[in-house]
Amino acid sequence: MNILSDVFQRGLSVANPDRLAVSDGKYDYSYAQLHIAIGKVSRCLSDLHVQRGDRVGLWVDKSCRALAAMLAVTRIGAVYVPIDPMNPRLRVEVIREDCQLKAIVTSADKFSHYCQQQPVDCAFILVDELPVNESQNAGSGLHKVLTWQDIQQCSAQLETQTVHPDELAYILYTSGSTGTPKGVKITHHNALAFINWSIDELSATTKDRFANHAPWHFDLSVLDIYGALGVGGSVHLLDEMTSYVPNKLIEFISKHAITIWYSVPSALQLMLKAAPDLAIQCPQLHTLIFAGEAYEMKALAQLREAFAAARLYNFYGPTETNVCSFYKLPSQLPELLPIGHSASGANITICDQHGEQVAVNQHGFITVVGPTVFSGYWGMEPNGTDRYNTGDIGYLNEQGELMYVGREDHMVKVKGYRVHLAEVERAIYSHQQITECVVLLDQGQRLHAHIACKKGTHLSLLSLKMHCAKRLPKYMLPEQLTLWPVLPKNRNGKLSRRCLSTSHPAHLQPHSITA
Hints:
Blueprint: H1 5-14, E1 20-23, E2 28-30, H2 31-47, E3 55-58, H3 64-75, E4 79-82, H4 89-99, E5 101-106, H5 108-111, E6 123-126, E7 145-146, H6 148-152, E8 168-175, E9 181-187, H7 188-202, E10 209-212, H8 221-230, E11 234-237, H9 246-255, E12 260-263, H10 265-274, H11 278-281, E13 287-290, H12 297-306, E14 311-316, E15 325-328, E16 338-342, E17 347-351, E18 364-369, E19 388-396, E20 402-407, E21 411-414, E22 417-420, H13 421-429, E23 434-441, E24 447-453, H14 461-469, E25 480-484, H15 497-502, E26 511-514
Helix pairs in contact: 1-8, 2-3, 7-8, 9-10
């Protein structure tokens, strides 16, 4: 396989054409149906003058049709740009203007935001069947807006454009430190290095049914989609309303007989909390993978106990490298969870601030070289090196395993001492009553612990400090405590430090305690 469109072709070659390829809860597409849909959208994109290298936005909820559009973009050699479907139009405009989108795949309700302000240089493809009201196209011309009815009338373009593996496949926008989103450029070569490795590592087959829990603008979704289609298996799309409702998630896994699950830890923790017998309810679930944030060891032990016979994986890697290391969990968990060994052909070293490799057990920056490392940010000059400093602090233990400590920007100074917030969080997490924890440095330069406890329990600041004092030096003890029913999460399901540091959502009703 040389480019992403080859992944589906590979699946098509090994799967029965009538075999299920993708399900969105409303429609089921077989491999034959998805193949035809991809061909029709490819033809429409070509008719809209979308050419090799052009960018196409996907501002749309997950669906079989939207997936067909995504794969069609790669087939004609264009570049797809997934956009959070919950983003307001103004945010979409920032991305559209930044990477000069030639077309946007969206829905009629989202397109309505462009009724009076449709950009003249951008076409729209709507995944809805209803024809668009002419008033919605004032000043733009109907040839710039195609509905699914229009697509159905197109003849399929089944040939694949000749594309070099080093050309861009997709762009993932992440929140930049300045508040302006940055586009991470991923080539076909980058993506396939991870996809091929993951298919081999997981030994996935045509019988496997992948859940797509992550939103498409989040890099975890790459495995769900291409891992499934690359082996002739099926991918089952979770909608936004279901993603963090534990009972709905459990019902989804059971109903669709999901065999491979990949998500951030918080989704797994929610399900296991709602159903400690999750493994019994979903006996076909043989592989669980988590990534995106650290899995607290106490909660991980519960997962390992519940899924004693299943394969559990910890994947590590920022968007800029995709998955570059992994750890397959043994039946008996270690005291600290490694991020393991290199994956996807990566070469990982621990370096000091000058880029020099450090000794075993010495902390430094996790630095990655390899085929999955991105080609740079859209619109920015390349940094002139193929090495990527993740900004994460880690070390290599005596067993040769990579260990994750935390983010460089989570290193703070308290009373003149350097403190890594992750170390304080680990000590707090070891308390039996605590289920979630984030530690921040407040404006008074004090350590502020935000925690959620088991239902029906309460924790005072004094008791928390006494607990931590057995594990941490005095200067690392929290001086302020806020109790939450549940800690806020961002759109990708990760604990949201930004939300904690700005405002408290009224419906969560946190209670603060100060020393």
